[in-house]
């Protein structure tokens, strides 16, 4: 049995993770921690799952690394500087692998993978994400990561910048720029988590779309992360692509 602690346990995702862990035959939920609770409750855990918010996740993760606990992190907000900070903590503390996944949905991971593959073949590529209106951050971690992967794939292939003749615009009209890729964020009542990657060129437009219809959809990926985190080859892993064999 893998002893699991959950951070953000009363939140939308954390509560779903607690249910999934309790329903998994090979896991035991040993701590359900939320805002105001003592992190010391996590000391009996082998793996800690964090679904909190970008403002607090770094303090939580530092605590896990310093206590040698494996961490599976779904919270958004990880840019290259934050990842370097995590590597720094790990260099100073033995034990404890960290898996940070912008999205645990298998379909979303495949969308990112296919976007990366397709991006060098098209002149234009833009990312449009839609989320529920209670989401604190924009753009989503998934959209940010998708844009990073697209930018890296285009740079590696020597693809030029997307054409864009805009000279006059209202603030935000062209979204935000992540590594040269335009990312647009919509907040919509009734939505959960949705993303389109739109690629265009040579008289054709190719759209990749993924929809998370509920939060249970993320649970197979989260449980896979919990099962694998202790045996990952690197102390820090970003994304569950390698766990899926991609
Ligand atoms: N990687 C993935 O597949 C997915 C990632 N996410 C990400 O997960 C994160 C959480 O999303 P969601 O569940 O919707 O958010 P919620 O706001 O519903 O849940 C966050 C929970 O964390 C609690 N919290 C705040 N501070 C702390 C703290 N210091 N220690 C422990 N708990 C704390 C909050 O309490 P309080 O409300 O009192 O502040 C709340 O209960 C977001 O960053 C979101 O983008 C979401 C879905 C999928
Ligand atoms: O806040 C959410 O809901 C989600 N957050 C993650 C993100 O920022 O990408 C994952 C998914 O999109 C749902």
Automatic annotation (TrEMBL):
Keyword Amino-acid biosynthesis annotated: yes
Organism expressing this protein natively: Actinomadura macrotermitis
Enzyme class: oxidoreductase
Lineage: Bacteria, Bacillati, Actinomycetota, Actinomycetes, Streptosporangiales
Name of the gene: dapB
Stated name of the protein: 4-hydroxy-tetrahydrodipicolinate reductase
Domain Dihydrodipicolinate reductase C-terminal intervals: 107-241
Keyword Ribosomal protein set for record: no
Keyword list, A-Z: Amino-acid biosynthesis, Cytoplasm, Diaminopimelate biosynthesis, Lysine biosynthesis, NAD, NADP, Oxidoreductase
Substrates-to-products reaction catalysed: (S)-2,3,4,5-tetrahydrodipicolinate + NAD(+) + H2O = (2S,4S)-4-hydroxy-2,3,4,5-tetrahydrodipicolinate + NADH + H(+); (S)-2,3,4,5-tetrahydrodipicolinate + NADP(+) + H2O = (2S,4S)-4-hydroxy-2,3,4,5-tetrahydrodipicolinate + NADPH + H(+)
Functional summary from the UniProt entry: Catalyzes the conversion of 4-hydroxy-tetrahydrodipicolinate (HTPA) to tetrahydrodipicolinate.
Family: Belongs to the DapB family.
Record: residues binding (S)-2,3,4,5-tetrahydrodipicolinate: 132, 141-142
Location in the cell: Cytoplasm
Enzyme Commission number(s) from the entry: 1.17.1.8
Residue stretches making up the Dihydrodipicolinate reductase N-terminal domain: 2-104
Pathway(s) the chain acts in: Amino-acid biosynthesis; L-lysine biosynthesis via DAP pathway; (S)-tetrahydrodipicolinate from L-aspartate: step 4/4
